[in-house]
Amino acid sequence: MIRPRKRPWATSAFGIIALGGALVAAVAQGCSDDGGTGGTGGTGTTATGNQGGAPNTSSTGNGSTTNAATSSSTGSGTPFCATPIVGTTRGSAIAMTSDDSTIVTVNRDVGTVTIMKVDTTASPPKVSKTSELSVGGEPWQVAINGCDDTAYVVLRKDQKLVEITGLNTATPVVGKTVALGSEPTSLAITTHNTKIYVSNWVDGTLSVVDPSTMTVTGTIDLNAVIATVQDDAAKPVLGAVSPRPALAHPRGIAISEATQADDSDAEVYATEWFAVRTSPENATGTASDHNWKGLLYKVLADGTASAINLPAVTDTGFTDATGKATGCFPNQVASVTLDGAGFAYVTSTCASPVGPVGVFQAFACNVDADCGVGGLCQNVNGTKTCNNKCALMNDAQCGPLAQTGDCALAPAPLIGTFCKPTVENVKTTTHPALTIVDLTTKTSTTTVLDKAFLTQSATTTQPPLKVPLLPTDLAFKPGTNFAYITSEGSDGVFRVTTSGGAITAVGASQLYIDLRATMDKTIRLPIGLALSSNSAFGVVANDGNRDVEVIDLNTQKVADFANVATVYSSDLPGAGTPADSSLKGKRFFNTGQGRWSLRGEGWGSCGACHIDGLTDNITWYFARGPRQTVSLDGSFASGDPTDQRIFNWSGIFDEVADFEGNVRGISGGLGALCTLDAMNNCTVRINTATTTPQQQGLQGSSFCTAQTDAQCPTMGMSPHSAIQDWVDITHWVQTIRSPRRPTNLVAQDVADGKLLFEQGQGNCVGCHSGAKWTISKLFYTPSNMTNPVTGTGPLSTTSWNTMLNGFPTQLFPSAVAANQFMRVGNPPAFEQLGCIMRPVGTLGPLGAGNVPAGVSAPEINVLELRQNMVTGGQGSGLIPAEPTAGLNPPSLLGLQVGAPFFHAGNARTLEEVFDPRFQGHYQSAVANIFDPNSTAGMTANQKRKLVAYLLSLDEDEATFAIDPKSANGGDICF
User: Fold this and answer.
1) How far apart are CA 897 and CA 614, in angstroms?
2) Exposure of 341 by Cβ count < 10 A (0-12 exposed, 13-18 middle, 19+ buried)?
3) What is the mean pLDDT of residues 244-269?
4) Rg for the chain, CA atoms, rounded
5) Of 723 and 956, which is predicted with more confidence?
6) Rounded to whole angstroms, how far apart are CA atoms 729 and 739?
7) How many CB atoms are located within 10 Å of the residue 457 CB?
8) Which residues have C-beta within 8 Å of that of residue 587, sequence separation ≥ 6?
9) Which residues, in sequence order, are bridge partners of residue 186?
10) Geometric angle at alpha carbon 277, from 273 and 279, rounded to 5°
11) What span, in angstroms and rounded, lies between the C-alpha atoms of 754 and 780?
12) Of 103, 574, 668, 919, which has fewest CB within 10 angstroms of its CB?
């Protein structure tokens, strides 16, 4: 057996609402050294904890401030805070005491918490670091009690809550800790300090902690709630599934202001991270933008829990390149803040998966024959398009969103006219959104903020346009109706004005507060904010630069940046070190500024679909067909960065740097494969499609293109990028940690499930083995010698159909000898590493128009369509010109947070993965988990146990060695 995986550093071997007027959004580009109600559920058990405290003072809460300190002692010897917190509460990556004198902020990558003092006599206030305390793995959020003397920190990786005492002294110290559930991410304290609620993202529960004893006194099971939430047809959104760990994924928490001294009238609200389906796909796929909804859990002090719907947006205000209005639905629901006036404000990334997505090329082609009689398929600036399909001065022939001049003459030596790419699609993929919930009526309205700030930018010239990509936190300016939102992807703080539960304006004297408008232009990645009690200033925690910035709420700018040095909460890694490269990679991965999205305005980023490097669980209609976002934690073996998975469901990429095409095509960015211009700026894009050989997809090496000649001298690679951003991103991807197993699994079920899974009984290891829990493994070093132009080189001339030792013919990627090579198919539509494809019955036979039938429950109705929403997707092996059947086996890491499953989201739960319609998967030629000859099929007990084992797979679980190719399966790539 392969031992448990570790994660050491190693260098790589290779419906928008009407707002009473025009609402707009704006965001600036930037380039620096860093790149430029469903059903109600069951009840949990809680305890009220210690009672006591003074009467509460009514106030509109800002979610972050507390009162002056008063403490009393309990019999346990731990101080009990008797001073109530003013207003509603929530946790954040940064917190401030009620007198604005002390800041506590988390350093997630470092495992420390920093305490800072604020000099409020200075104008503007200045912060200074006083201490940094080691607390453990991944401190995620912090909250401060009503006495201003104790902070509580959630440790996501270590699965603990830790207290820090003595905040009002010169020497704060780490106090007691208590174990929590798996992947705790958020916390909040009740008004009278009697309880701390913590969301356990993987367990699907809330822990209730008594802060005076630091013990867990109750658990709220939200899995029982989500299992009863209904779709539009009054059916369970997750299908027929019983409550069990990791169905629910609670994330952000906020608590209402309580009037009772025991906090018995407090209401707890927690966001469900992932959206749930409300109806099946329709025949054309146009419903896919709004047939999902988000959820907000409501929990009473007695443990009664229910869910409130967060509705989809039917019209975002953006039109795609085909002229269709686009919608979106709240997903990756990050934070919830209560305004104390009966409304909850919930941030999310609103997903819009219907194609076309990204940059749109009218009259795209692969070969001349696609262009009709006499037409030429020409490569214009890296994109293949037919010539002479438009006439000069008749730009409308290039599509509904064509602009003046979009029909142009092709550059010499090319012939005729061509249509320039349309970039407006870039704005229709992911949207920062705010859902406002009326807590009395339980009704909600979702607004996309990018459209609002875009509209507002028309009347604001400074700073340049940015939209609030990846909203991470929201706080109200005390005593006002101004909400401030941090945007991790745009390095900004964005103001929204509200009234009566509606947005009435966005922006202020400045469109947003630019966190990079400082002497230090490094990408910031803000993850939390706290606002002062006097409404004058706020502080922002930046994960990408490990610093804290003071923002002036009156001028709407970073406070006096010219005279204030950057205040780091933790030291940055040394320049040129592996940790430095990884941190830079994290910045590039998450930002939508500079070269990483359209005009650097924050329209998209890698992190928009892969927050924390994992998955948004969305099925996108891409160029190859419907593709569920792949979690990146299974990309590299933790202990061996040379052990890399072949990328994408269709096996079309062999390097992280190949995703340059996604940056350019989906996000509309310049990309990071570029050369220097005359001003020494990296603004000249390398045309990877016209190099000889091409350097994209499976041709050549994008990774070597991203390095200097000195680093890649033997590959014959030219030209090389002037920057090495993709090298840094690769290093960061190698560090991505898999989610930890649930703590609330039944141990005997896990042990029994393992027997069903492993070789000799189930033999799931025929496809899911090795250090990454997949047989998919890069088996060569990409280069001009190994994989030059299509059809040449050893990859294209080496057959996998030799010495197979009984490998089942049913799992052959192709029965046609001409397609039995490692690399097959013509780019860009069909090329792939064919040897890793495995046909296991997840695609059906061809129907009308050569569209494969989708395999799924009728409540899902998977559509096997490419992004034009007409052409059949790849994978069946039956479409003309398609060289193989099957898909690239995914890693089993991250199954706890990876639903729905299969390439197109075919199964809503792990239980549904073992539905009879997927028998070709679990009873394939190598896998025989359940007796295919049994009329009873699988038993409920067998399914429950196998699901428990799959949920237990994390980096601590010993894996199985990949078998040599044989009748038991294995890897036939070599």
Assistant:
1) 9
2) middle
3) 97
4) 27
5) 956
6) 20
7) 24
8) 34, 35, 522, 523, 525, 544
9) 199
10) 165
11) 32
12) 574
SS3 2: strand
Query: Closest Cα to residue 94, out of 63, 120, 119?
Result: 63
Q: What's the confidence (pLDDT) of residue 15?
A: 31
Q: Tell me the two tokens of residue 561.
A: 């940046």
Report the alpha-carbon distance of residue 626 to residue 620 in Å, rounded: 5
For the sheet containing 112-119, what is the strand order?
Answer: 94-96, 102-107, 112-119, 126-134
State the residue for tokens 């507390």.
66
Written as one string, the DSSP assignment of 280-316 is ---TTSGGGGTSEEEEEEEEETTSEEEEEEEPPBS--
- pLDDT mean over 778-804: 89
Residue 86 contacts by C-beta under 8 Å, 6 or more apart in sequence? 56, 57, 59, 61, 65, 66, 67, 98
**Reduced DSSP (H G I as helix, E B as strand, rest coil) percent helix, strand, coil of the chain, to 5:** 15, 30, 55
Q: What are phi and psi of 52, to 5 degrees?
A: 145, 180
Q: Buried (b) or exposed (e) across 672-705, using 16+ Cβ within 10 A? A: bbbeeeeeeebbebbbbbebebbbbbbbbbbbbb
Q: Is the pLDDT of residue 634 over 70?
A: yes
The 3-class secondary structure across 619-661, one letter per residue, is EEEECCEEEECCCHHHCEECCEEEEECCECCCCCECCHHHHHH
Q: Where are the domains of the chain?
A: 71-353+431-515+528-542, 368-422, 578-733, 745-826+839-974
Tokens read off for 375: 């037409």
Closest alpha carbon to 83 in 95, 94, 99: 99
State phi, psi for 260 to the nearest 5 degrees. -85, 140
Give the confidence band of 759 by pLDDT, cuts at 50, 70, 90. Answer: low
For residue 137, count other CB atoms closer than 10 A to its CB: 14
pLDDT tens digits for 506-557?
999 899 999 998 778 899 999 999 999 998 999 999 999 999 999 999 999 9
Structure tokens at 201: 């993202």
Per-residue pLDDT tens over the stretch 68-95: 333 333 334 457 899 999 999 999 999 9
Per-residue tokens: 291: 């047939």
When pLDDT is averaged across residues 211-239 and rounded to a whole number, the result is: 98
Query: Whats the size of the chain, residue-wise?
Result: 974
pLDDT of 5 above 50 = no
Q: What is the DSSP string of 771-830?
A: TTTSS----S--STTTS-STT-SHHHH-BS-SS-TT--GGG-S-SSGGG-BSEES-TTTT
**Across 121-145, average pLDDT:** 96
- The CA distances from residue 837 to 141, 181, 280, 370, in Å, are 42, 37, 28, 28
Q: Choose between 99 and 721: higher pLDDT.
A: 99
Q: Which residues face 328 on adjacent strands?
A: 313
Q: Amino acid identity, residue 301?
A: A
> Is the confidence at residue 631, as pLDDT, over 50?
yes
Q: What is the pLDDT of residue 789?
A: 78
Each residue of 883-912: b (16+ CB within 10 Å) or e?
bbbbbbbbbbbbbbbbbbbbbbbbbbbbbb
Higher pLDDT, 64 or 408: 408
**Average pLDDT, rounded, for the chain:** 88
The token pair that represents 669 in the structure block? 């960015």
- Residue from 96, 76, 208, 83 nearest 142 by CA: 96
pLDDT in tens, 465-482: 999 999 999 999 999 999
